[in-house]
Amino acid sequence: MTLSVSAYAFTVPSMADVTAQRQAAEQAQEAQAVQAASAEATEVALTERRAAVVQVADSVAARAQVAKETASAAALTAEVVAPLDEAVAELGELLELARAESAVSPVSAPEPAATGPAAPLPQSAPSPTEGAAEPAPEPLPSDAPTASPTPSASPSEKAIVTTEVPATVAGVDVPQGPEDATTARLREAVEKVAQASAQVVLVAEANSAAVEVAAGVQAAAAAESERAAAEAARVAAEQAATRAAWRTSLDKYSNGQVPESALCDVAFDPSHELRCDAAQQLEQLDAAYVDAFGVHITISDSYRSLAGQYACTRTKGSLCAAPGTSNHGLGTAVDLGGGIQTFGTRQHRWLVANADEYGWTLPDWARATGSKPEAWHWEYVG
């Protein structure tokens, strides 16, 4: 409706226009309030999600420290622990970043939009002053645009990278909700540290188990070695006692009058007999001789009875000791052949070099420089 007063014309809005304008203003205010509430809820969800992930990160960092201590105790190499060290360093940087961002941008509720009624419309136009210049007519509310302004996105909404987030982080339940870029990176770093810690602990436990097994094997080997040593000592003591008994076993018999039952056969040549300890040591000497030459020692004479000593004197004269004085009559002397009976042969030189180890020797008088050289005559002095 248009009214004309003197030289001026005014357009007066209708009631329908006024009502429409008020409804549009109220709707815009309601939309702003809904948007503000949504932004606040999103900010709260982002903050709760980040706080939960930070809490899990602190716990996982503590577990990582325990894993490092376990690795140190298990003497793991730096190469094995390096992935965990790198993951922990990255997690530490992201924790600092997350806390710094939270300190700078705490959650705060946005100021509420005005919800009161729209400003009242003008009821009348001012009266013109005669002679004054025509004032420009003030725009009515209907002249202003009625479209609701498009609000800009909140910082939180811009920062959201995903709403599809896992319900657990490193096996711990966390609030569901959107994540910003920093929280997402922090969550990934937490998972990486948790996995690296688990791997280090697994390797450390495996190493510890292997060490325990090795220690058990070593202990068992040591125990077996001790048992074997004790057994060897026992056997050696028994053998020494036996040899000591054998050494004196013929003392009660006169030279050349030892019964056959008191003597022992030589194992590699049973046709010969000696005092038992002399026979045993000659057998060991023979084993070494076989290793060197591939054949047994040749024995031409061993125990010689008193009658045998007389016979030797009759047939060999001064080559034989006076009857009743020969070491053959005590079962502790042998005459050898097979090359040993000749000075300078390989066999003789070998025996000279090795016989003493087994208690056998070539007497000084029987050596090449002795008073009565007899390369074949060997006596047991063990």
From TrEMBL:
Biased composition (Low complexity): 106-118, 126-135, 143-156
InterPro entries: DD-CPase-like (IPR052179), VanY-like_core_dom (IPR003709), Zn_M74/Hedgehog-like (IPR009045)
Location of the region described as Disordered in the Swiss-Prot/TrEMBL record: 106-158
The D-alanyl-D-alanine carboxypeptidase-like core domain, residue ranges: 272-382
GO molecular function, one term: carboxypeptidase activity
Entries under SUPFAM superfamilies matching the protein: Hedgehog/DD-peptidase
Gene3D superfamilies linked to this entry: 3.30.1380.10
Any GO BP annotation: proteolysis
Keyword annotations: Carboxypeptidase, Hydrolase, Protease
A Pfam family matched in the record: VanY
Protein name as it appears in the record: LAS superfamily LD-carboxypeptidase LdcB
Record organism: Cellulomonas cellasea
